[in-house]
Amino acid sequence: MAMKRTKTPWMKAEDFGRSLPRGVGVNLLVSDMAAMEAFCRDVLGARIIHADEDFAAIELLGSVFMLHADHSYLDNAMSGVIAGAETRGAGIELRLYGADPDAVEAAALAHGHIVLAGAIDKPHGLRECYIVGPDGYVFVPSAALAQ
């Protein structure tokens, strides 16, 4: 399957790519764009820069990351990695430093998402919790503990 988008993109892909700042980027392949967009907005508190049926640009805690629908990635090498996968990103934690773990946990529960581990103070100086998103990605909102 190819792109589902029927309207003109908000920005040319090459222009968006060139606009990305230097640093580490995250790109998540998702099976349900609307569900992941809602999770990012309603649970994680992200700002949706742009979203359509194929692609979303998300701003969270000062960083930009991207969502790509599975169907839009068929000619990409990663399409073989996700083929038949029930859960995405096994073993990867998407850590959200500076996010309020108690607030994210409450939002996750309110929106029916899985709380893998509730907010707790950890010996490494962070209060954190583990939330499972729509495609099985694990998000870890973390806040520094006072000294």
Q: Could you walk me through the main structural features you see in this protein, from its secondary elements to its overall organization?
A:
- This protein has 147 residues and is an alpha/beta fold.
- It has a single domain (13-144), classed as Roll (2,3-Dihydroxybiphenyl 1,2-Dioxygenase, domain 1).
- It is built from 4 helices and 8 strands, in the order H-E-H-E-E-E-H-E-H-E-E-E.
- It has helices at 13-19, 33-42, 79-82, 101-110; strands at 27-30, 47-51, 55-60, 63-69, 93-97, 114-121, 126-132, 138-144.
- The protein has a 4-stranded mixed sheet with strand order 1-4-3-2, with helices on one face. The protein has a 4-stranded mixed sheet with strand order 5-8-7-6, covered by helices on one side.
- The longest helix is centred in the first third of the chain and has 10 residues, at 33-42.
- The model has no long low-confidence stretch (mean pLDDT 85).
Structure characteristics:
4-stranded mixed sheet, 4 helices, 2,3-Dihydroxybiphenyl 1,2-Dioxygenase, domain 1, 8 strands, 147 residues, alpha/beta
The structural domain count equals: 1
CATH architecture: Roll
Q: Low-confidence parts, pLDDT < 50 over ≥5 residues? A: none
Largest sheet, if any?
4 strands, mixed
Q: Reading side by side through the largest sheet, how are the strands ordered?
A: 1-4-3-2
CATH domain fold name: 2,3-Dihydroxybiphenyl 1,2-Dioxygenase, domain 1
Q: Give the integer mean of the pLDDT values.
A: 85
What best-fitting shape do the alpha-carbon axes yield? Answer: globular
Helix content: 10-25%
Query: Can you count the helices?
Result: 4
- What is the level 1 CATH name? Alpha Beta
Give me the CATH superfamily: 2,3-Dihydroxybiphenyl 1,2-Dioxygenase, domain 1
